[in-house]
């Protein structure tokens, strides 16, 4: 067995969010000199369960194994059927295990990718649950830099408490760019409101939820920044046209 190859693969597993618990299974499989093999991994995110089958293949010319792809399967606690997607390892732009969970939940993830000329570029990626390719995988939508989505700019128009400090702002932006649904505190005339938000590059905004995962509209909570007359919190929860469009899309994703 090629020890350096083994160490490289264990680092790759760790970087992509699979931890170290597969290391001994990986070693045993490599020692058998199999042409190809798969390892199984499972993790719970709240009440939801994500499993993965990791695919490894041996080089035909030398004693090297490659981690080529993994099939991720998400089972939400309130759904009977799993949602599956095959993610390929690529540099850069490989999807981590947690990012796979976020994508299968319908959220978007920002990644650095490489174009055909070999030049790097930034893009938000999101699964298109209404369209699949010939292999049965959901097609991937990309919202490039030129699409005009400015996450920091969108957040700056809201009275979010976590934006007041550089460190907490950086953590919030990083979390949202990884596709997480993140809790924030919004201020309305000095009154704090807790919401969960996620990035929405397609609609160039954000999507907000309350603690019961019910979609909310929070644009009116910017009134405290605009020095507008105080409004009752319920006025901030009226859906805008953009949110209704996003809601229709989400319903379509859930039904797919």
Instruction: Give, in order, the helices and strands.
Output: HHEEEEHEEEHHEEEEHH
Number of self-contained structural domains = 2
Total number of β-strand segments? 11
Which parts are unreliable, with pLDDT below 50 for 5 consecutive residues or more? 220-256
Q: Helix segment count?
A: 7
- Which word captures the global form? elongated
Proportion of strand residues: 25-35%
Distance between the termini: 44 Å
Tell me roughly what share of residues is in helical segments. Answer: 25-40%
Widest sheet: strand order? 1-2-3-4
What value does the average pLDDT take? 85
The major β-sheet equals: 4 strands, antiparallel
Radius of gyration: 21 Å
Structural class: alpha+beta
Protein name: DUF3945 domain-containing protein
Region (Disordered): 221-256
Index terms:
11 strands, 4-stranded antiparallel beta sheet, 256 residues
Could you explain how this protein is built, in words?
The chain has 256 residues and is an alpha+beta fold. The protein folds into two domains: 3-104; 151-255, no CATH class. 26% of the residues lie in helices and 34% in strands. It has seven helices and eleven strands. It has a four-stranded antiparallel sheet with strand order 1-2-3-4, covered by helices on one side. The model is unreliable at 220-256 (pLDDT under 50).
Short description:
This is DUF3945 domain-containing protein. With 256 residues, the chain is an alpha+beta fold.
Write the layout of secondary structure elements.
Layout: H1 3-15, H2 23-31, E1 36-45, E2 48-58, E3 65-75, E4 83-88, H3 97-104, E5 109-114, E6 120-132, E7 138-144, H4 151-156, H5 166-177, E8 182-188, E9 191-200, E10 205-209, E11 215-216, H6 223-226, H7 241-255
Antiparallel strand pairs: 1-2, 2-3, 3-4, 5-6, 6-7, 8-9, 9-10, 10-11
Organism: Dyadobacter endophyticus
Protein name: DUF3945 domain-containing protein
Region (Disordered): 221-256
